[in-house]
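Teaching note: in complex prediction, the entire set of molecules is handled at once rather than each chain in isolation. The prompt given to students was simply: 'Predict the structure of this complex.' The entities are:
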Amino acid sequence: MKNESILSVKDLSVSFHMYEKGLEQYDLKVISNMTLDVRPGEIVVIAGSSGSGKSLLAHAVMGLLPENAAISGEISYKGKVLSQKDKEKLRGKEFALVPQSVSFLDPLIKVEAQVRGPKPDMAKIEAQKEIFKRFQLDEKTEKLYPFQLSGGMARRVLVSTAVLSGAEVIIADEPTPGLDLDMAMEALKVFRELADEGKAVILITHDIDLAFHMADRIAVFYAGTTVEMAEAEDFRQGEHALRHPYSKALWRALPQNGFEPISGFQPYAKYLPKGCLFSPRCPYKTEKCEEKIPMREVRGGYVRCIHAD
Amino acid sequence: MSNTAAVSAGTKPRKLQINRRTKTIFFAVMILAVLFSVYLAGALLSDDLIQADFSKKGLPPSLEHPFGTDMLGRDMLVRTIKGLSVSIVVGVVASTVSAVIALIVGVAAATGTSWLDHFINWVIDLVMGIPHTVLLILISFACGKGLKGVLIGVAVTHWTGLARIIRSEVLQIRSQQYIEVSKKLGHSSWWITVHHILPHMIPQFVIGLILMFPHAIMHESSLTFLGFGLSPEQPAIGIILSESMKYLSTGMWWLAFFPGLMLVMIVLLFDRLGENVKKIVDPYSAHE
Amino acid sequence: MKSKYYLKFTGKYLVRMVTLLIAVSVISFVLVSLSPVDPVQQYVGSVPNVSVEQRAKIAEYWGLNDPPVERFLAWGKSILHGDFGVSLLYRRPVLDIIREKFAASLALMMTAWVFSGVIGFGVGCMMGVWNGKWPDKILKKVCLIMCSIPTFWIGIVFLMIFSVQLGWFPMGMSVPKGVPADQVTLLQRIHHLILPALTLSFLSFANVALHTREKLVDVLESDYVLFAKARGESKWSVLKRHGFRNIMLPAVTMQFGSFSELFGGSVLAENVFSYPGLGAAASAAGMASDVPLLLGITLFSALFVFVGNMLANIIYGIVDPQIREGYGHE
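The expected output is the structure of the full assembly:
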């Protein structure tokens, strides 16, 4: 099962051309030198607190960034580096997005028409009905408008669009907001099943606890970059198996591990520190941390920290 | 979007745009200066310049008379500037009155009892329910036409939009926590309105006021054009244009063309001024 | 359930319409009563040798010596009986005049309304699609300038260019001079209608275009358009399936809500072109102190605006699923 990666992101940076107070312009770098890869059959979780640029990663991969965004670095699928044109061709076919809320459905179109997409053929309609059955969405749901869906129904409808597309890579953006643990696990089970069918799944979430349970591998996101990429097993084992000080701090902040908050705040993209982005909050900070920090391999995982061992 | 676009590191502001704010302020001041000098020119130019002179009647534009002359031989440029000057005064006075009405009504609707709020909303619907021009004709008729009619007419018909904006802003501020705190401290509703709410209304008030000028000026000239506004002896763009109608078929295009064009310019200048002030006062609205 | 909802809806509207019309009649009556113009003087006007006694008789006949409230009630009562009085200007019943003039105005207003609606929507869509690119920037500037041009001036400019200089269109009126009404052809009527209609649609065209542009830009930046793109829908499909569908409703609503500006604009356009419609009659009534006609037209125009707003709300209710399917959730 652990074969070649199907999608890989190398040194990705995304910045926005912004107006400050409407009158001054500057570039806001929201993702910097990010690296990630995902293989068929596995769930990679991208974990990080809100504001760490997680959702934008999904948009960058699918070529959905707005016009005032500039991106650099490489995104490749099945070994081929993707251009914007390629992404536009692949999205909806090879890549599928599972968005976070019902606001991603057109308010004026019935559910069935939205899930099937424009001009569906008989096979597609059949497939949609099958998928709805699988997700326990009864036939009445098809005729509803988005505003008539309950939160749980909406989430299942959104997932069915991804399943119907038959995409190889599924990117789910915050699929469990506001759900209690049982319901969230239920929601995530679907993604486990999809991965077991051979799809590559990227789960973007701030719910680290859940991520530990469901994922194969975890990428920890901080201020727009990956600080650590490791087997989920390491996170289950505990602090000592982790590599980056931020990952360790996240682990300690979990309720069952002491509930110890991390001091300080994640820096706003406009005021990023030099070198290591975590250094202002890091107890191990040295002068060398202000230089460019590369991603390096430590104990079978990857980490962006010069002190990790 | 480009995949390969080089991204400058960090968050350096772009040097070229660094003075956009200064530029905006500069333009606003310039526009204000132009408008003020048109007003001054109109007020100071001697009436002797527009004495009837039948030896010069109906001349097309020339160096001596850039806008030509009318059928009484009066210089159209001078008449136009005098007319614009009157328009600017009428526009400023009527909009100011209207904006003050809007402020009072908007704050009252948001702070008073729900009964008052309903009533004010109903009045706004009512004012908006009669076509503007018809209401203006009625009011002008009630005042016996003339300058007074135009001023009152324009003042009492233009406040509705701004009043709605101010009402919703006040409601938003009143729902904030520090207002609650102030109430608990025993401050009266009136005290809170004066000390906490009115200061926040200043930007909206100023922007709303300036953006009202163009409408006020257009309605003043329309009403005068129809014969309800300023009297034929007064210099006014509406009068000039309605006079020009008589000579259209003779091909004397300059009688209507330049005065109207200048009116459009003044309206556009006020509009620009409003937009610039908006950018200075409320920067987040300025997104190109 | 559904019929009950419609009943409630209709009832609410009837109550609002009646209160509005009562309020409008009170206000307009108060306004015309305030006028310093002497109606008797206005009535006898050009007729020489009207004695003081005769004037007093007319005043007595019109009830001018009664207190205002009594006069209002008398006027209101006759209105309820469908009697709006006799126009001083045309010496005919006000209702007949309104009926006749409104027919002419309706042709003008509807032409301008459809024209500005359709073309404005089209241009607005183009601007929205080109958001931020140069065609959008140019069109936006043009529309903003158009918004600052007074209706009556652009009418005069059109007359100067197309009638005086080029001779393409007549100088005004709704029919050729000296031709009996029953011999005027439809083509001649249309020929007379084009310039006034263009003039009337000038301002609203720019408004519609700018409004449509804003809406389309909002929709194209929405979550659901992002998701549609993520699912591989082409640009055109996104526009057709999501863009147009979602801006149609606000556009249609706004168009029906613009009856007030339409009527107001028609007063100016009809004056410039001497077009014998209700708008021209409104200003003529005001100029000639023809109080019955002025009051009649004011009431009628308020009703016209009200009907527009009501149609806008009804269409919203029919088209928007949130209201249509959600009537039970009110």
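Point out the following to students. The longest strand of chain A covers residues 24-38. The two ends of chain A are 28 Å apart (CA to CA).
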